[in-house]
Write a structure and sequence with these properties.
about 550 residues, alpha/beta, five-stranded parallel β-sheet
C-alpha cells in the first residue's frame, strides 16, 4: 500500500487542507513541537482504520472529514472517514468500521484472526490489529509494554501484541488449527460412513437370508398384462423408494443421535469432574467400555476444560438430541404411512385372482430392487469412505509440513532478531538491549532518554523484521520518539539509527521531526518533506477541497 495524498475538511470551522506524499521516506517537518505534526499523522492512521486513543488538545475529529488516496497493488482507491462511517471508491453505499476492516483486509490479502479475550473464539480482526505493527504513536508507544495501550479496540483480543506479530510474520498456529479442525471433521465423517456401511451390510445380508427361497414366477402374457404390471410396479416402486429413503434417514439420524447422546453423557461427566476439580478422573465410554481420560474426552469434543464452555456445549448437545428425537419420531410416522400405502396396494392385488401372478411378479421384483438399492447405497458410502481416507492422509501430511515450516521460520526469525539487536546496539551505545527476547513485549525499565533509546531500538528491530518477513505491507510511521530534550551525542545516535534502520527508499514511511534536527540526517535532501507551521488547515482551501468528498458537507 502507498498513501498518495491526504485531505482534511473541518466542516464546522470551514477550513481544509490537502497533503501529498511520495512512495519513499516522508518527513513531517515543523520549526518546533506542537505545530500539528502529530495531528496530521494521527488523523492519517485514524482514516486508515487505526483506533487512535488520544488526539492533541483542540483537534476535534468529530467536526472533520478525512479523505485518503491510496494505491494497493496496481489499483487506486479513495478512503473517506467521518467518525465511524466510511466510504470507499469502489462501493456505492457507506460502510461501518467492521465492514471497512473486512474491505481493507481483502484488498491487502490479509486473513488475520484473533481469539476473543472472553469467549476465546476466533474472528476476523478490526483494522487496528493489522495496522499496529506499522504505527508508533507519540503519546502511547513510549511507556509501558511495547505496542500495548495504543488502541482501546485491541483490548478485545487475547495475547496482544504477540499474536498479532505471529500472524504478520506467518508464525501463527491458526492455519494449523483450522487444518486440524478439518482433519477432525473428516475423521468423524469417515467413522459415520463406516458405521452406515456396517449397518447396511447387516440389513442386506439378513434380507437376503429371509428371501433366499423365493418361488419362481409363472410366465405371464406380458402383452395382455403390460399396463397392469407397469401401473402396479410404478406404485409399489415409488412407495418402496420412499420407504427405503426413510429407512436411510432413520439410520443416519439414529447414528447421529447415538453420538450426540454419547457426547452429552461425556459432557455431564466432564462437568461433574470439572466442578470437583479432580486432576485426572476417567470416564467410561458407554459403547465400547474403554477408559477415556478427561484430556482424551476434551480432545474428542474440541473443548477447553472449563465449566462455562462445557455447560454451553452440553446445552447445545441437549437441544440437538431433542431436535433429532423429534425428527426420528416424524420419520417413523411417515414411514408407517408409506408402509400402510404399500400394504393397501398389495391388499388390492390379493383381492383380484387374475392378478395373483402379477402380485408375485411385483413382490419378487420389489425385493430384488430393494436389495439392489441398498447395495448401491453401500457402494456410495464405500467410495465416500475412500475419498475421506485420502483427504485425511493429505491433511496429516500438510499439517506436518506446515509445523516444520513454522519451526524453521521461527528459528530464522529468532536468529535475525538477535542480529538486528546487535546491529542497533552498535549505533545506540550505552543501552541494555538484552531485556526482551523475540516476541517478548514486557514493560521496559529505565527513565529519561536512556529509556527512549531502548524503545526506539526495539521498534527499529521489529520494523525491520516486518519489512523482511511480513505477509503484507502498510506504510510505516514513527510519530516522534522525543519525549525529553535531546541534543549532542544522543541526538546523533538516535537520528542516525532512524536513518539507518527505518528510512528505506523501497518502502513508504512517515517520520515527524523539527527542522533543527534535520542536520542530524546525512541524506536529508533525498527525503520528501511536508512542512507544517502550526495551522494545519486553511479557510482558503475549504471550497475546492470539500467538493472532492463523497460525504455531503
Amino acid at each position: 500500500m502507498i498513501i498518495k495524498s491526504f485531505s482534511i475538511v473541518d466542516f464546522k470551522n470551514k477550513e481544509a487542507q490537502n497533503f501529498c506524499f511520495e512512495s519513499k521516506t516522508n518527513l513531517i517537518v515543523s520549526r518546533s513541537n506542537t505545530q500539528g505534526k502529530s495531528s496530521l499523522l494521527k488523523s492519517m492512521y485514524f482514516t486508515l482504520g487505526f483506533d487512535v486513543r488520544q488526539f492533541p488538545s483542540g483537534w476535534d475529529i468529530n467536526d472533520m472529514y478525512f479523505q485518503m488516496e491510496v494505491r494497493i497493488a496496481d489499483s487506486d482507491y479513495t478512503i473517506t472517514r467521518q467518525k465511524d462511517i466510511y466510504r470507499v471508491s469502489d462501493e456505492v453505499d457507506s460502510i461501518s468500521v467492521k465492514e471497512y476492516s473486512e474491505w481493507l483486509q481483502k484488498k491487502l490479502n490479509i486473513n488475520m484472526k484473533l481469539a476473543n479475550v472472553y469467549t476465546k473464539k476466533l474472528s476476523n480482526v478490526y483494522s487496528s490489529a493489522f495496522i499496529l505493527p506499522f504505527y508508533i504513536d507519540q503519546d502511547d508507544s513510549w511507556d509501558g509494554g511495547m505496542y500495548k495501550r495504543v488502541s482501546d479496540t485491541l483490548n478485545q483480543y487475547s495475547g496482544i501484541p504477540k499474536n498479532i506479530f505471529e500472524s504478520v510474520l506467518s508464525l501463527s498456529d491458526i492455519e494449523i488449527d483450522e487444518l486440524q479442525n478439518t482433519l477432525t471433521n473428516s475423521r468423524k465423517e469417515k467413522n459415520t460412513a463406516e458405521s452406515i456401511i456396517n449397518n447396511f451390510f447387516k440389513i442386506v445380508e439378513e434380507y437376503k437370508e429371509e428371501n433366499e427361497n423365493i418361488d419362481g414366477v409363472t410366465r405371464i402374457d406380458k402383452e395382455a398384462l403390460k399396463k397392469e404390471i407397469d401401473r402396479y410396479l410404478r406404485l409399489v416402486n415409488d412407495f418402496n423408494e420412499e420407504a427405503t429413503d426413510y429407512k436411510v434417514k432413520l439410520l443416519n439420524k439414529q447414528e447421529i443421535l447415538d453420538m450426540q447422546k454419547q457426547e452429552f453423557s461425556e459432557l455431564e461427566q466432564l462437568l461433574k469432574m470439572n466442578r470437583k476439580r479432580y486432576n485426572s478422573i476417567k470416564t467410561e465410554c458407554k459403547f465400547c467400555h474403554s477408559q477415556l481420560t478427561v484430556e482424551q474426552s476434551l480432545t474428542r469434543l474440541d473443548l477447553s476444560n472449563n465449566e462455562f464452555e462445557i455447560s454451553l456445549l452440553k446445552d447445545e448437545v441437549q437441544k440437538e438430541i431433542q431436535k433429532l428425537t423429534g425428527e426420528i419420531k416424524d420419520f417413523k410416522l411417515k414411514q408407517i404411512i408409506v408402509e400402510r400405502k404399500v400394504d393397501e396396494i398389495n391388499s388390492k392385488i390379493q383381492k383380484s385372482k387374475e392378478l395373483l401372478t402379477i402380485d408375485d411378479y411385483v413382490k419378487v421384483t420389489a425385493k430384488k430392487e430393494a436389495i439392489n438399492e441398498m447395495e448401491n447405497l453401500i457402494e456410495k458410502q464405500i467410495l465416500m469412505k475412500h475419498r475421506l481416507e485420502e483427504t485425511i492422509k493429505v491433511l496429516i501430511k500438510k499439517i506436518k509440513e506446515l509445523k516444520s515450516e513454522k519451526r524453521e521460520l521461527r528459528m530464522s526469525l529468532e536468529k535475525d532478531y538477535d542480529i538486528q539487536i546487535s546491529h542497533v546496539k552498535s549505533i545506540l551505545t550505552g543501552v541494555n538491549l538484552n531485556e526482551l527476547k523475540f516476541l517478548e513485549f514486557k514493560k521496559i525499565e529505565g527513565s529519561g532518554m536512556n529509556k527512549n533509546k531502548k524503545y526506539l531500538a526495539y521498534y527499529l528491530v521489529y520494523f525491520n523484521l516486518v519489512k523482511k518477513y511480513g505477509s503484507y505491507k502498510i506504510p510505516f510511521c514513527i510519530d516522534s520518539f522525543i519525549k525529553n530534550e535531546i541534543a549532542g551525542d544522543n541526538a546523533i545516535e538516535m537520528f542516525g539509527a532512524v536513518e539507518n534502520y527505518f528510512f528505506d527508499d523501497n518502502i513508504q514511511s512517515f517520520f515527524s521531526i523539527v527542522s533543527d534536527n534535520l542536520k542530524h540526517l546525512k541524506h536529508e535532501k533525498d527525503y520528501n518533506k511536508v512542512v507544517v507551521s502550526g495551522k494545519l488547515l486553511s479557510k482558503d482551501r475549504y471550497d475546492d477541497i470539500s467538493l472532492k468528498f463523497n460525504f455531503e458537507v
